[in-house]
Amino acid sequence: MKPLCLVTILSILIQQSYLKLGADAFSRDGFVRTKGVQFSLNGYPYYANGFNAYWLMYVASDPSQRPKISAAFQEASRHGLTVARTWAFSDGGYRPLQYSPGSYNEDMFQGLDFAIAEARRHGIKIILSFANNYVSFGGKKQYVDWARSRGRPVSSEDDFFTDFLVKDFYKNHIKAVLNRFNTLTKVHYRDDPTIMAWELMNEPRCPSDPTGRTIQAWITEMAAHVKSLDRNHLLEAGLEGFYGQSSPQSKTLNPPGQFGTDFIANNRIPGIDFVTVHSYPDEWFVDSSEQSQMEFLNKWLDAHIQDAQNVLHKPIILAEFGKSTKKAGSAQRDAVFNTVYGKIYESAKRGGAAAGGLFWQLLGNGMDNFQDGYGIILSQSSSTVNVIAQQSRKLTLIRRIFARMINVEKWKRARGYGPVRKGASVEKPAYLVSNQLNDQLKTLVGSGKLRDARQVFDKMPHRDVYSWTTIIQGYIAATNYDEALSLFSAMHVDDPRVSADSHVLSVALKACGQTSNISFGESLHAFAHKTHLLSDVYVASSLLNLYKGNGMIDESCRLFSELPYRNTVTWTTIITGLVHAGRHKEGLRAPLSQSPKHLSHSSSSLPLSRGYLCNNNKAESSSSTILLLFDQSRFCSNPPTASSQSGTGFITVALDVEIVPPENSVLHTAAERTPNMGLCNNHALMYFSEMSRFEGLPDTFTFAIALKACAGLRQVQYGRGIHTHVISKGFGAVLDVANSLFTMYTECGEMEDGLRLFESMRERDVVSWTSLITAYSRIGQEENAVKTFLEMRNSDVPPNEQTFASAFAACASLSRLVWGEQLHGNVISLGLGDYLSVSNSMMNMYSKCGELDSASALFRGMRCRDIISWSTIIGGYSQGGLPEEGFECFSWMRRSGTKPTDFALASLLSVSGNMAVLEQGRQVHALALYLGLEQSPTVRSALINMYSKCGSIVEASKVFKETERGADIVALTAMINGYAEHGKSKEAIDLFEKSLKVGFRPDAVSFISVLTACSHSGQLGLGFHYFNLMQDKYNMSPAKEHYGCMVDLLCRAGRLSEAEKMIDEMPFEKDDVVWTTLLRACTAKRDVERGRRAAERVLEVEPTSSTALVTLANIYSSTEKWKEAAIVRKSMKSKGVVKEPGWSSILIKDRVSAFASGGRSHPQSEDIYSVLESLVSGAEPLRYGCEMKRDSGSIQIL
């Protein structure tokens, strides 16, 4: 009986102790501390699962709006959230906290008082930020403006970090906030445990000092200042997590740009208690796919959590993360939240450094004016709210487990049970040992110490699937894919108790994709099918990527048709694969012929049904596999809210209204434009419907991919159909979709529709402006492109590297050096010069403008170069008449290990042809064969041109015949031109006719070549036939070059009056080329009057043209008009016009030397002239003897 009583009493004592200690564990009073890499509250682990709400003080400053604050905190507490981050600043401007330095708005301060009091009432901690990096709510700029108004010589916002007066203003603000007496709680802020931490600045950046030293010094000074005033609260810097010079290997993780911060060095500063990281892949990589953004997010978070634990030894909070629903659907946002929360949970359950996450941002009902696309209203149930609540429960459970372990130890110590002797070891549970070894394994793999990681792995007494996945990922990261796959196989043999999950299977499939190990991948496919893992979205996507990445797009389509469940990821993966594979147009050969059974109709999956066309008799030639994936049902009975042009089936949209008009407006406009709405037309339009029947499908990225397919097809009718669907889904205002629509219209030649769309966009980002600049350049309106760039600079959207690349391309096309130099200055001021795309486009601009010295200096000053850099400078030298430099640069490129591209080889072949150095051209040809680039259309046409210009028409013809089946219009044109230049007009014309018969559509250059052939052979009638053919049959308007060919043809036929008439009737501004052609013909025919008119026209365009003046003088001389000839020559002398000397070149020992009459620029000119004088002096007697014999009537050359 006594033992039973003892057990009962002991049990009661334990329960009482648990209750007491449990109350302590979950009390939210007290200051949050740090203990190692964890937060601690009242001696127990604490996790910051919370939100951002920058608006708390602003809204609460109006007493009538305070119920919104109370409701928001109540909902946050109900969903288990523990921390709120908000602003303790509003400097200058509208409703400021700080009117001017030291002068405060009591209403705003009382608003902050109320927010803190409500947080305390609901058990939520607060993080308060002292200042803003950005202009909103004052920011650095306002402090600098205040200092400038008091006479300080400050100009840049970054002077905030260095100017003593600005720093004094800031320090005084910190002091004012810390010493604030809360009018509601009656506690000074510095003594209030409701406040968890202070933040020095929201996202500090100093781009003017990319070394990070300025920020480092500022944080050091301000951290010491805060700690001198307040030792109770924690302090963090507010950093976003960008790596700096202290960890150069990690800088590759940073998004593009200069930030002036250093995640490692800045957070090592004494006084900084914990570290923060922000994550916005959708803003940092706006042009990247959803998959790429998620891959970045995983790497970004893993790196920072590991560095916080192993390098900084401090807790880390993921202080800002989110996903804008303006750019994606709820499924994509949930994926981001799950990823972030998953990283935190995996670290927290092992006692790691990840101590919480704060999503951006919490809103309450009736706060639409604060909605930025990221806002989440907890009272409005959604899948994201469920994810948030689930994370709260998981972190609470972890906290309970750790608290229980701590309580047991406390109870044992308090009761004297099981005292642990000093130095004695305590055996840890197996699962704790396994978790610790897994953490060690992950750390070693993450730091690249794969050999050490393998040793730990091999010695592990117990391995779980996490252990196997970590080590396999390590080998994949080290590009040892064979070992990764070998480990996957060993997992089933060595540890049969370990069951492969979707994660490790996805990792193994990635290894198969990298090694193109299709057989192993197919085995994994069978394994996934057998283990029912094929329904997992990551496994399905990995398999799809494996097949499409290895050119097996049909297998991808077949797999897609077999998937029992589909969501946005799998749909988007297959569509992206088809687009990237160029499978835009394939008729009705659908990869989805059968419908799988037991399909879910949830928001995350999609059933498949066979699609039909209303009238499909002509659909085979106008449909697309990609777009078939969008349309899996009938639409005859359910026309969309758009218009169809009668008799065509092409869907149009109301582009003269807003992008997201009211539904009635769309219907009304559609009805006005086309009264007969419907899709039952001879040319049925297939567009997507099946995906759109379910919530979240398709997403904005899927729309963007579909629009890219339309642009690739140049099928604007499909694009209009998708535009209609975009409007019906409410995605018209999403920037990514609007930008894709604009690009689709402009690439399909619908510039007017594109401009109307651009003008109607409610907001524009850098992609919008850059797309417009590129579109103008594409249609030859480069001046409008430059004007658009200037408009963009006057807007609040800063240009990025792609913008400058497009702007430089426009300047290059216009040969406007001054504009290009001004853009160069902009690049330097914005710090974008290190971007390769910018440097390459600047080089191209300088080359096209004839400034090869500037291009060369830019090239030699580049920190790194890619193949485009090399090709650009080689092409610049080649086109600029510097062949030696071009070949030298090419040799330099080869020594650097860079593999030449077809463009670089084509540039060298062009140089060889222009300089008529056949042997050099043959060497380039041999290199093309060695590199496997001889079948490239660019190289092929360049080879034909080179051999033709070097006089070897036989070799040119041989190159053409070797690739005749695969010949394109460029190669055909090159061959036709080669025949024409070699007087083989018949062969040129025959080849042109043959190309027409086999279905080639000639372009403008082709017609120039065939007209040249007609001119050389004197076939006037045939020339006019082709000239009319290009207009009547091919709907081409003749360009200056075509008129030039016809003028030359008429001149050669002696029909000078018709030639002059054609010149006068040309619909272009007349240049000196056509008039010079007529002038030379007049010389041959001794047509003095017409020649005089032609010469005058030439001199109007080019007043110092030596060709015109010399030819005119020769006309006068040939007709014995000596006086007129003398006047022309006297005019040449008075104007300083000198006849351009002829020149020739020679190739000796791989060096091309050019010579002009009287020239002395050659480095060996003295030696050359010395030898020449010896030859002349030695030839004088021979010349005298030759003349004597000629006089005697017997001419012999001795």
Automatic annotation (TrEMBL):
Gene3D superfamilies: Glycosidases (3.20.20.80), Tetratricopeptide repeat domain (1.25.40.10). Its main location: secreted. Pfam families: E_motif, GH5_mannosidase, PPR, PPR_1, PPR_2. Keywords: Glycosidase, Hydrolase, Repeat, Secreted, Signal. GO terms for biological process: polysaccharide catabolic process; RNA modification. Coiled coil: none annotated. One of its GO terms (molecular function) is mannan endo-1,4-beta-mannosidase activity. One of its GO terms (cellular component) is extracellular region. This is mannan endo-1,4-beta-mannosidase. It comes from Brassica oleracea var. oleracea.
